[in-house]
Amino acid sequence: MKKKILYTLLVVCLPVLFSQAQTLRVPGSPYPLSAVPDSVFLTSENYSVSERVALQTLQGVTAQTKPAILRDLSGHRALIEKAGVKVNDSYYNNFPGLLGFFANRLSGYILCNQKDRSTNVAISLAGVMNAVAIPADIEQTAINAGLTRLLDARARDEAWALANYGTLFSKQIATYQQSSDDRVSFMGDYSAFTKAFQFWDSSPSGTIATSAYNRMNKGATFFGWGPEEYGTVEQLSLKSMSIIPSDWAANLSTLSNIPAKTKVFKQKEPVKPFEVKTGVHTVCFVITDGDNVQWLLGSHDNINNWNNPARAHVNLGWTISPSLAELAPTVYEKYVDNCLTTPDGRNVLIAGPSGKSYFFPGRMPDADLETESKLLNSYMKKADLRIVNIIDADDSDNDPSSYLKQDNIDALFTTVMVQTIPVVTDR
């Protein structure tokens, strides 16, 4: 009898649980999902550079099961607390203690240098080997935590990692990330969480970059940022892929698994309808660069930009990444809630270039652009966006038909890149 009751409960409850999980990702989403945490450990930015390298991989690897760590950056604590996640600061300034707490969940550590190609190798391998990247100067911390060295990567580079472990990395997510400067402290958590190959190439058409592109599926999304805008975006577009600017982004492995309190995102309606006046030219002002996820995660929210109360008194469009609705739902919720709408003005969010992520539509094969546009349509509905800002190569045909077929897209704003310079068109 007990078995029968249990079976009945499972039959009834599983579809409900599944439908709830489904709401966190649109069909065809490239962004992985694990579980919603009840609580997370908060960590200070006073950790050393080497500790932050290790911390990122620890954060990402644990998030593969359920997020357990949040770096204390950009008001993220308040956002997840609003969503009902508790915050524990027991190891706020104690990385050795934090590593020791999670040691029994790890297979070991990968030794690397603090800021060079071996760091990218260790971050990449951490995600697929259930390990942490440990720069040599803090190896004793890992040993004290009871961890075993799995690999010494200090003399290795990304080409070696790809040649020896390439089959283990995600074919849907990759990270183009400089590891020889301060960017080494960012994006590593999401790379580890998604089992992404993290690499750097000083040329967007270089050997390592090309090898990274060629192993990915069509529709793959790259995070981080390349050495130059035009060349990087063009190379990805030609291979039916795209990029989300994010080389200074943190906490994505945690934020992407915490749903917003709002079940359905809804932008505010205008206080009074727009009045069309004859004989008057109407100018539309749009704030660009909203596809930049690291900007959206924190630095954008300051008195000179989004947090300026004067924006309530003018009609402004703000570009934003539709993918933010899945990559950081609580952050996206903040922007939707804080769109100021008064009798004097209205703030409206529109999709940043050139859809869910950045690519040149004119460089993408037509059939794949159709697929990308259909996926964008789902994100437009989820994020409650109606206008798309497109950036395209100057010599492409700029054919908007694949976008205009979508029922959640009302209008397009087009910009072209002419020899790396963006030019607003009148089309």
TrEMBL record:
**Domain GxGYxYP putative glycoside hydrolase third N-terminal residues, every copy:** 175-257
Start and end residues of each GxGYxYP putative glycoside hydrolase second N-terminal domain: 107-166
Superkingdom of this protein's organism: Bacteria
Supply the InterPro entries for this chain. Answer: GxGYxYP_C, GxGYxYP_C_sf, GxGYxYP_N_2nd, GxGYxYP_N_3rd
* Segments passing through the bilayer: none
* Signal peptide stretch: 1-21
Question: Could you confirm whether the keyword Nucleus appears in this record?
Answer: no
GxGYxYP putative glycoside hydrolase C-terminal domain location is: 280-414
**Is Signal a UniProt keyword of this protein?**
yes
Keywords assigned by UniProt, alphabetized = Signal
Note one Pfam family from the annotation. GxGYxYP_C
The protein depicted here goes by the name Uncharacterized protein
Recorded source organism is: Chitinophaga pinensis
